[in-house]
Write a structure and sequence with these properties.
Oligomer: single chain
Helix content: under 10%
Strand content: 25-35%
Number of strands: 14
Order of helices and strands: HEEEEEEEEEEEEEEH
Largest sheet: 12 strands, antiparallel, barrel
Structural class: mainly beta
Strand order of the largest sheet: 1-2-3-4-5-6-7-8-9-10-11-14
Distance between the termini: 25 Å
Length: 244
Amino acid sequence: MTAFPDRSSLMMTRIHPSESGPPRRAGDGGGRSSSSAPAPALQYTVWKRSSMGFQGTDGFSVYDAAGALAFRVDNYSRRRKLFAGELLLMDGRGSPLLALRPQILSMHDQWNCYKASEEGQGKRTRSQQLFSMRKCSVLQRGHEAEVFMSGCITASDHDGQQVPSFWVDGCFRRRSCKIRNSDGEEVARITRKKAEAASNSLTLGDDVFSLVVQPNVDCTMIMAFVVVLDRICWRPYTPMMCSS
């Protein structure tokens, strides 16, 4: 039986996606000589753990195809919504990108997203809001969450309700879901992560999963969706403890 390093040793190494190939940035077509070739999807590995590596952390570390830290969320508790503060989505260097806040009076676990800035912490206004995301009703079978972009005019369905700008199809808790736009086109996909070792392929635990973002899609926005999904698709949370 093949031996694998424990989680504490994984913290000392870079986590690579299963797919091989050089890293690509959003919008990079891989060269100008083959303009007819479609741009490749972007591959990320999402680790449900703060990059700081302290005991009991409940953040995110997101690595690109080269194993470089692309996004991070450093959070140290999972309190009830009434007492929860905002979550800050940062790039790999720790620069703030987006601020995510729960809406206290909401029946569908709504979260609001704002453009982040260090001097603007605690002063979020509706005019600064970029989108809101909430859990779907149990009557909406197969739809787990929906996103409404601020200032975006979308069509209404036959009941006169606004059609979401994005919606999540599948089950995030099982790490098997797709994010679709208002036209039903897939813009991102979340799947279980597989570790390749010799001739064996093992499916990792759900604290590590794969995120594939389609070309010309805002990766920062998609990662914000993932962070909110982790909060609204509630499950019992046990902090990961570092081994001594």
